[in-house]
Amino acid sequence: MTTYIGDGPDVSGFFGSFGGCYMPEVLMPALQALQQAWDNLRHQPEFWDEYKRILTDYVGRPSPLFFAKNLTAYAGGAKIYLKREDLNHTGAHKINNCVGQILLAKHMGKTRIIAETGAGQHGVATATVCALFKMQCTIYMGETDIRRQQMNVDRMQLLGAEVKSVSEGRGTLKDAMNEALRDWINHADDTYYLLGTGAGPHPYPTIVREFQKIIGIEAKTQILQHENRLPDALVACVGGGSNALGLMHPFLPDLDVHMYCVEAGGKGLQHDQHAASISKGKVGVLHGNMTYLLQDPDGQIIEGHSISAGLDYPGVGPEHCLLAESGRINYVAATDDEAVQAFQILTRQEGIIPALESSHAVAHALKLAKTMQPEQIIIVNISGRGDKDLSTVKAYLAGAAQ
Ligand SMILES: *Cc1c(COP(=O)(O)O)cnc(C)c1O
C-alpha cells in the first residue's frame, strides 16, 4: 500500500475504507447542507481571515513553541520542544475547532448550538464561543462525567449554556454524543451540531482537521525559525484524534518526520481497562463512521478506560485509521501510571502543568528521546493545561501510596 499523506477523504467522505456517513435518513439533508456550506466557505479567503482574526485577538494564537531545556536534560537524548496549546483561551486546543465551526454555523444562519462533551473541555470551549457569538447553547454530558468534572459544568453554566445530563449507558462521552445526535434529528432547522473531535459522520472529520491544522502550520514555521530544519519526530495524544491530526497533518508529506500517536493505555493493554482503539480495537461503525472500535467478542462496544476523561472515547477519527493502516503514523500507548508520572515530571522540570491527556504524549516523548541523538528534535503537543486534573492526580497518587 502507498503511504497516505493526508490527501483524503474521497468525495463520499472515505479515508480508504474508513469514515463515510452512516446516518439515519432523516439527518441526510442536514449533513448535505453542512457539506454545501463548508464547500462554499472553505474557498472564501474572507472566511479564513475572520477565523484567523479571532484566533489571534481572542484565543491568543500563535501558541508558543517552547524548547524544554530541563526536560531535554532529564530525558537525556533528543531536544524536546513543546507546542503550547495549553496557553490558548479556555486552556486547550478545542477552541480552534469551536471558532471555525461557530463561524460556519453563523454563515448557515443557525441560532442554536448543540455539542457533546466528555471531560467538559469541548463543552466549555463551545459555551465560550456561543457567549461570544450570542448563540443559544445546549451541551450534552454523561452523568458520570458530570460528577467527575463539576468545575467544567459550573463554567459552562456560568457562560450561559444549558448542560443536559445523560444517564443512558455508562453516562460518558459515547452516550452524550448519541443524545446530541438525537437532538439534532429533531431540531435540524435552527440547530448546528458542533462536533468536538475528528470523528463522526462525513464531513465532520475533515472540518475538524482543517480547523485544527493551525497547530501544525504554526509549529512548522516556528521550528524552522528555532532550528532552521524540520523535526525528526512529532508526538501527540489521541482521544478522537483532533489535536494529533492538527499537529501532524501539515507534516504528513515530509516523510523524514516520524510521528507517534499515543493512545490511552489505561491499566495496560493486556487488560480490558484501556482506550486504545487503534492498537486493540476492531473495525465497526459508531456515530456515523467506519472506524476502529473497542468491542467485545460479540461486537458490542465496550467503554474505554483512561485516567483522563478526554481520552476514553471507544472510537477514533477515520483518518487516523488509514494513517495507521498505511504506516505513516505509529500508534503506541501510555498507561495511567506513565501519564501520571509524566504529569509530575513536566510540572517539576519546566513549571508547566499539562492536562492528563497531554501527559500521555509527554510520557512517550520521554521514552523516545532517550533512544535518539542530542542533535535530533522532537515536538510534543501539549494539548491542554492540567488544572482540571489536580484532584484526579491527587486521588490517584493517594491510592497508589496505600
Ligand atoms: C479533548 C482533549 C483531548 C483528546 O481529544 P483529541 O480530539 O484526540 O485531541 C486531548 N487533550 C486535551 C487537553 C483535551 O481536552
UniProtKB/TrEMBL annotation:
The keyword Glycosyltransferase does not apply. InterPro entries: Trp_synth_b_CS, Trp_synth_beta, Trp_synth_beta/beta-like, TrpB-like_PALP, TrpB-like_PALP_sf. GO terms for molecular function: tryptophan synthase activity. Its cofactor is pyridoxal 5'-phosphate. Pathway: Amino-acid biosynthesis; L-tryptophan biosynthesis; L-tryptophan from chorismate: step 5/5. Its EC number is 4.2.1.20. The modification N6-(pyridoxal phosphate)lysine is found at residue 94. It catalyses: (1S,2R)-1-C-(indol-3-yl)glycerol 3-phosphate + L-serine = D-glyceraldehyde 3-phosphate + L-tryptophan + H2O. GO terms for cellular component: cytoplasm. Residues 60-384 form the Tryptophan synthase beta chain-like PALP domain. Keywords: Amino-acid biosynthesis, Aromatic amino acid biosynthesis, Lyase, Pyridoxal phosphate, Tryptophan biosynthesis. Tetramer of two alpha and two beta chains. The beta subunit is responsible for the synthesis of L-tryptophan from indole and L-serine. Belongs to the TrpB family. HAMAP family: Trp_synth_beta (MF_00133). This is Tryptophan synthase beta chain. It comes from Acinetobacter rudis. The lineage of its organism: Bacteria, Pseudomonadati, Pseudomonadota, Gammaproteobacteria, Moraxellales.
